[in-house]
Write a structure and sequence with these properties.
569 residues; mainly alpha; Transcription Regulator spoIIAA; four-stranded mixed sheet
């Protein structure tokens, strides 16, 4: 088989490299990158805040994930950046290592481990996740987006942007004066209930207007002006509404907690003051290596799941080289750690926004990272005018498309063996987190797979005159043991049985043991047995031939040994 060197090796010539950055689809990728950028900024800040790290570290990761991973990756739609699924791990690692600078060393090492995993071709693990589980994961992310963003839509910005956990921790709350951080704010549902009793009318109007703009644009002008995503129009409209409030009535002016908050970097000293760099003396701490391994494994699994999911959504059905993706992610994490960023993965939320906004190639991811950099250096005052309610409207619409009723109806039509794992995966992810939910979904899928495997006929009995021919299937494992025993026990006494394994490619030891026990005990039921080309039982075939020839010789009065040719009978 020809080795797919493109999976691991970077393009060897500039011409091939340049093709990956064609401007042919710029008219699609540019507006899509703007939509992803606008959503990514508050998510980067929120995830950094929830991780207990400097806010700038989240933006650094977004920049590196966009520009560097975007350039090295072969995924046309995936967007990388700080991931909500890593917040607890990052926060715990920082606490154990007692400094953010030591955590950065672990991030660098995690990246190197991911590069090693890619070179060892560990990326194939994602392909073993059942399709029903991947679709359930996408729908669950959509539901989580809706549940988590509805409070922001109503002006209840208590929980940080980017949180996806069902159980809400104190670190997941913003410093919002009107919010009671005490009893009740402990799950996604209770935060949502609190939002309905603490909503702010003027912000809710911005959120609803943004939703209406998205729906209206998609159904009308969006069909004519396909290059302008509805999310971009909604952001412009929502921002103008927020600015207009302060002119109409100063008391309606939105506070900073309801707006995007990008820290401004005006000089190198500003960057140094707000960021950090690895403390290499931490290499002597064994805990650094444990944290690095944990980050590498979880980040790699989340990346592979995200890549598998976004590839399934791709209208062009393109496939991402997963080993190459692990190498790209590893390089990204190492660079991120070197300059003060937190760990990254391929993120399904940003990737979905990219797809919904019309992105076609990885140029969209690269541009989104460039826009984050420009925003920090030049445009933070303008970006900080955008209300979070508008960005929530964009994410809610993305969530609805991921978890639309059509998706549920489509999976239901495929049968309960697909729908039940799909549904359980959704519930498990919404009530726990992404990795636990996927593991639960895989376990449920495995039960259905084993059930179907058990019910599939792997042995068939046909009659050819007085002979009962037992035909074995291609692959027989211990799961088929009961079925094989049932068939053999049903064979009538005083019959001539031929066990035909000519179609079999693999027969498990347990099945061979069952066949051999049947052969040994067959004489008690006066059953004559022959075996034909049963894998792993050639010695049994030869033994049977010797046994029956000896019986025939004794019956004819000649007890002398009869020579037998080696091989199957």
């Amino acid at each position: 088989m020809k080795k797919n060197t493109q999976d691991l090796v970077l393009p060897s010539n500039f011409g091939q490299f340049a093709k990956e950055f064609t401007l042919r689809y710029l008219k699609y990728d540019l507006p899509a990158s703007l939509a992803v950028f606008l959503v990514a900024v508050p998510l980067c800040l929120g995830i950094a805040h929830a991780s207990g790290t400097p806010l700038l570290s989240g933006l650094i990761t977004g920049i590196v994930g966009g520009i560097i991973v975007g350039a090295l990756s072969k995924s046309p739609l995936s967007v990388s950046g700080p991931a909500a699924g890593l917040t607890a791990i990052v926060a715990a690692a920082a606490m154990q290592l007692k400094s953010f600078e030591a955590l950065l060393v672990a991030v660098v090492l995690a990246g190197l481990m991911q590069i090693g995993m890619g070179l060892l071709k560990a990326g194939a693990i994602g392909k073993y996740i059942p399709a029903s589980v991947i679709k359930g994961m996408l729908a669950a992310i959509g539901i989580i987006l809706i549940l988590k963003q509805l409070p922001h839509l109503m002006g209840y910005d208590a929980e940080v942007q980017g949180s996806e956990k069902f159980q809400v921790n104190p670190t997941d709350f913003e410093n919002v004066p009107h919010v009671d951080h005490g009893h009740g704010n402990n799950t996604t549902f209770t935060v949502l209930i609190d939002a309905f009793t603490n909503y702010q009318t003027e912000i809710l109007l911005i959120g609803l207007a943004s939703l209406l703009i998205i729906v209206f644009w998609d159904k009308t002008f969006g069909k004519r002006f396909k290059l302008i995503p509805s999310s971009l129009i909604a952001v412009i409209g929502g921002t103008l509404m927020a600015v207009a409030y302060s002119f109409v009535n100063p008391s309606l002016k939105l506070g900073v907690t309801h707006l995007v908050q990008v820290p401004a970097i005006n000089s190198w000293s500003d960057f140094v003051a707000q960021s950090a760099f690895p403390m290499w003396s931490a290499l002597s701490n064994p805990q650094v290596y444990i944290s690095a391994l944990t980050i590498a494994l979880v980040a790699s699994i989340e990346t592979l799941l995200s890549i598998e999911a976004i590839d399934k959504l791709d209208p062009q059905k393109r496939r991402t080289p997963v080993n190459r993706e692990l190498v790209a992610q590893g390089v990204g994490n190492s660079v991120s750690g070197l300059i003060g960023g937190i760990p990254m993965t391929s993120v399904i939320v940003r990737s979905s926004v990219n797809l919904v906004a019309g992105g076609r190639t990885k140029l969209s991811a690269i541009l989104h990272g460039s826009f984050i950099l420009i925003a920090i250096l030049l445009a933070s005052p303008i970006i900080n005018l955008i209300p979070l309610a508008t960005l929530s409207a964009v994410l809610i619409m993305t969530g609805f498309k991921l978890a639309s009723p059509k998706v549920f109806k489509s999976i239901y039509k495929q049968g309960l063996d697909q729908f039940i794992p799909f549904l359980i995966t959704i519930v498990a992810i919404v009530l726990t987190d992404l990795l636990i939910g996927v593991l639960v979904g895989v376990a449920v899928s495995a039960v259905f797979i084993l059930r179907n495997h058990y019910k599939t006929p792997v042995v068939r009995v046909t009659e050819q005159g007085a002979i009962k021919q037992v035909e074995l299937g291609e692959n027989l494992t211990f799961l088929n043991k009961t079925q094989v025993i049932h068939v053999l026990e049903g064979l009538p006494a005083r019959s001539h049985v031929v066990i035909d394994g000519s179609r079999s490619l693999y027969i498990d030891h347990d099945i061979r043991e069952v066949l051999e026990d049947f052969i040994v005990n067959a004489t008690e039921r006066e059953i004559r047995v022959e075996s034909i080309r049963v894998p792993g039982m050639e010695h049994t075939s030869q033994g049977l031939a010797n046994f029956y020839r000896k019986l025939e010789a004794q019956a004819s009065g000649d007890a002398s040994p009869v020579p037998v040719e080696a091989g199957a009978h």
